[in-house]
Amino acid sequence: MTGRDDPAATDAAATGVEAAGTTASGTTASGTAASGTAASGTTASGTAASGTAASETTEPGTAAPDAEWRRLDPRTVRVSLLTVAGICVAAGVPTGFGIASTSLFWALITVLPASAAALAGTVVVEGVRLRRTRYRVLADRLELTKGVLVRTRRSVSRDRIRTVDLTAGPPARLFGIVTVKIDTGEQGGSGASSVSLYAVARGEGERLRAELLDRGRGDGRPATGGRLATFDPRWVRYAPLSIVTPALGAAAYGGVLQVAEWFGLQSGVIRWAIDLLGGLGLVGGVAVVAVVGVVIGVLGSLALFVEMWWNFRLDREAGGTVRVRRGLLTVRSISLEEQRLRGVELVEPLGVRTAGAARVDAVATGLRSQGDEDKGDRKTLLPAAPRGEADRVAAAVLREAAGPTSAELTRHPIAARGRRIRRALAAAAAPVAVLAGCWWLFSSPVLLHLTWIGAVAGVPIALALAVDAYRNLGHGLSGDYLVARHGSVRRSTVALQRRGVIGLTARQSLFQRRRGLMTITATTAAGSGAYSVHDADAAEGLAFADEAVPGLFGPLFERG
Amino acid sequence: MSESETNESETGAGVTGAGRFGTGDGGTLRLRPPAHRVNRTAVTWWRSRILLTGGAVVAVLVVLALVLPGGARFWLLAPAAGFAVVTVVAAVGMPLWWYRVHRWEVTGDAVYTRTGALWQEWRVAPMSRIQTVDSERGPLEQVFGLATVTVTTASAKGALTIPGLDRDLAADLVHELTETTQATPGDAT
Hints:
Chain B: The chain crosses the membrane at residues 50-68, 74-99. Chain B: Pfam families: bPH_2 (PF03703). Chain B: Keywords: Membrane, Transmembrane, Transmembrane helix. Chain B: It comes from Prauserella alba. The structure holds 2 protein chains of 2 kinds. Chain A has helices at residues 7-14, 34-40, 52-55, 75-100, 104-132, 170-175, 202-213, 244-262, 266-277, 281-309, 350-354, 387-398, 415-442, 445-472, 510-515, 538-548; strands spanning 70-71, 134-137, 141-146, 152-157, 163-168, 177-183, 194-201, 226-230, 313-317, 321-326, 331-337, 341-349, 357-364, 380-386, 474-478, 481-486, 490-497, 501-508, 517-524, 530-537, 557-559. Chain A is an alpha+beta fold. In chain A, a hairpin with a 3-residue loop joins strand 16 and strand 17 (490-497). In chain A, helix 2 packs across helix 5. Chain B has helices at residues 41-67, 70-101, 139-144, 167-183; strands spanning 29-31, 36-37, 103-106, 110-116, 120-126, 130-136, 146-153, 160-166. Chain B folds into 2 domains: 41-98; 104-183, Roll (PH-domain like), CATH 2.30.29. Helices cover 43% and strands 24% of the residues of chain B. Chains A and B meet through strand 18, helix 15, strand 19, helix 16 and strand 21 of A and strand 1 and strand 5 of B. Strand 18 of chain A pairs antiparallel with strand 5 of chain B.
């Protein structure tokens, strides 16, 4: 087979002779001039002769029926054009106004040609890129060639493909195309293990996803599909309870000041705000600023949640994958092979937990963050939802009858509470000590007040969190799963498949040794790599570890 | 595999109270130390490492104190003196403590290690889950004829390290572990 780049094929592509009708949507790219045709759209013009280009796919060895080279969708150019046009408007209008304040003529003569050049450049670059990018799915691997000056050819073994994610932003949805990201989930060498196709027709994307992920593994499990969870609009109420809310509120103020600084108006803005709020006094002014910040934060977190999670669906598919689909404007489809699933983690940040809700994350191997905008959310199987629903979804994903995350857990010895209280008090004392030190150095009354306020407010909060953290400690076994819970600000209940445990660590500090406590960690290839049972009773914890993963520590056990 | 370094398990547990779990009544489940100690030379190796690192810091401080004008001298020499004391104390005490704690054992099914001092860790990696076995020799280790063996699994946090092994013993160990893990089926995840 032609493993190397075939000069004849490249020439054929450059002269516009291509294999037609390979995309599922029936859209065929063709034409002569690189920029002109690509921009002119979906009408299949030109001669779609399957002669020269198709011939190279029929060498011996490529037995798969659909081994023809395929191309990206020509509508990609228009999506890129729309995106660049948006950037031109967003950047050009303020710049234009800025220059127009001195001279309208110069504003027009600089901004308009620059925008035109950017648009024309996009058409040319994208046109050439589309022309020079092709991929094909063979029986055992996926091949991609791309690049203009430097031709790269990438071959990804189909056995290694772990995820096929589809993403479509608003412009892409308008034109019916999706970006396909195919990833092998291997650690290290981020670029080499993933293939991104920007962009193919929606139908083609779905077809690729189904084809690459469905390997028809006969692992004995019933290959039935089905809906596991559906979005409930009432879940939106949990969105403002996240840490995002204050962060967005603060970011809004920061953003206003930053923009004002660009135009040299920062002190003006601050003075204007002080004038506006001057009548309210210091406390009133601070309160108004805080309330406005919270309102902005709440609105922002609601908008973000709706954009991310609207129309969320969690499905189990016949091919042995679990699929999350979601998004209001940008729609995403994220797939996870069940074979790689080692468990789930029920995450309850403090705010969300107070409202009786929880999030479900997957604990899976090869689910490496890809450094794009939603890297933290690729593992999320269910957004913050009522606790009962979260337990139900966790059990359904794991195919367990009784939800491991709602199992009755063994409490930890009271000595663990002392550890938490001491640690929390130390954490509360540190800022107070720093403030007291500053007060001693500068003897300012403001610092004195801050010191006692810090002490009075910090100590009860620290104590409450410590006691809560102790009460949350627990571990147990539920069916095939090892369950461990800990944390207060972020309570985490992890259910880890017992045969997914690939090692154990027993850890004791000097203080733990004195008090008969032990932290037992199960290492795994999935998720964060290690999940701990913190401060269990040493003997009980060891017995638990031996029951969870029999025989591992066995040879080292002794009775004394 | 190691003749001279086996079965001293009872001698090392005393000082730190290692291996004592629970309330200490008869019948409490606990972990015994793995069978083998590291090579005795490791104490010298650890000691030289501490002395060299600490000595370098002290030397920099002293040189700065000599070069810089008089006012800064005290503020450089005082920490240098403090650091020198800490280094010497650590160099005397820590290697002995480490030597008592550091243990390893290989059975047909798994590799066990115990490391640490203030925080002690027992680690186990089953043969079927071992992915790589490396042996590494830093410049100082080469001087003392020692090697460090690292056993990794598919977990990002599951690596076992056995420092301060005799060079030939480490080579044998790597060879033996590689043979065993290759003979064990499974994809180790």
